[in-house]
Amino acid sequence: MGVLRGNNLVQGLGGTPRIRSAAAPANRRRRYELPKEEHYRKLERMYASAPVNEYYAPTMRVSEGQAEVIIPVRPDFFHAGGAVHGLVYFKALDDAAFFAVNSLVDDAFVLTVSFNLYLTRPISEGKIKATGRVVHRSRRFFIAESVLVNSDGREIGRGSGTFTPSNVRLSPELGYK
Questions:
Q1: Listed residue (23, 59, 61, 24) closest to 142, CA to CA
Q2: Is the dihedral of CA 118, 151, 136, 141 positive or negative?
């Protein structure tokens, strides 16, 4: 197998691109390597199955080193000032950055170590869309950034965080199926 440097991919049988985990050194990697698209769809299903998402009703799309989260704005998300509360901004921004990182780790659930948040504009209608991308990675830590926009594409928030693979394996019990 030839490693494609800098993007965590290996070439599988028949030239199919597959993900190699960033969570463990190459000599300790699993024998089975999941096709990228299958890993991304499993992450999306895991996200959709999380109980917290029943309330927020988000949608997610994952690709290599990136993720997008869309949440429809509802009045029950508002603070007393009549706009969406910052916790919804945080959820969208953290989820997008988190799953951008987990797109590069196919054997472990990733953890948010820290997250910085900037709320730049209020919103009270439409949808919010957070787009996250990995901007740095090392053996044990990743840095991802995410930008939040309104339905018109105007930036309303941004954030960045540090993430690390956990000891929790991605499995059907977590909704990863």
A1: 23
A2: positive
**Residue in 60, 82, 78 with CA at minimum distance from that of residue 69:** 60
DSSP reduced 3-state for 8 = coil
Express each pLDDT in 119-163 by its tens digit: 999 999 999 999 999 999 998 999 999 999 999 999 999 999 999
Instruction: Read off the amino acid at residue 144.
Output: A
In the CATH scheme, what is the code of domain 36-174?
A: 3.10.129.10
Helices marked H in 50-154 — which ranges?
52-56, 86-102
Rounded to a whole number of angstroms, the CA Rg of the chain reads 17
Residue in this structure with the two tokens 């990675």, named with its chain if needed: 137
Q: Which pTM does this prediction carry?
A: 0.82
